[in-house]
Design goal:
This protein has 5 helices and no strands. It is mostly helical. It has a single domain, classed as lambda repressor-like DNA-binding domains (434 Repressor (Amino-terminal Domain)). α1 packs across α2, α1 crosses α4 and α2 packs across α3. The longest helix has 12 residues.
Length: 91
């Protein structure tokens, strides 16, 4: 399988984050325990309307789930330079 075939789309990365957190409500609670600014409905909208994580919440979602910012929003967060898959063979 080629490396490019293994990349997740932003939606798939968000789905992975939701699954890792234990569901939409749990993800929202892990980021905003009192659910004053982030609610389950926001997560649902990202999944079903936007098809990606809100730029405002990417870092918090990443911290809560371990899904990288680059996976969640590659349009905002470039691939890390120290990623081994990004290294060129200089030999």
């Amino acid at each position: 399988m080629r490396e490019i075939d293994k990349l997740l789309s932003p939606l798939e990365a968000l789905q992975k984050a939701v699954e890792t957190a234990g569901g939409q409500t749990e993800l929202a609670k892990s980021i905003d325990p009192n659910q004053e600014k982030l609610k389950q409905q926001n997560i649902w909208n990202w999944l079903n309307r936007d098809k990606k994580t809100s730029a405002k919440w990417v870092v918090k979602v990443s911290q809560a789930t371990g899904v990288s910012c680059h996976e969640l929003r590659p349009d905002i967060f470039p691939e890390p330079a120290n990623d081994p898959s990004n290294q060129q063979d200089l030999a």
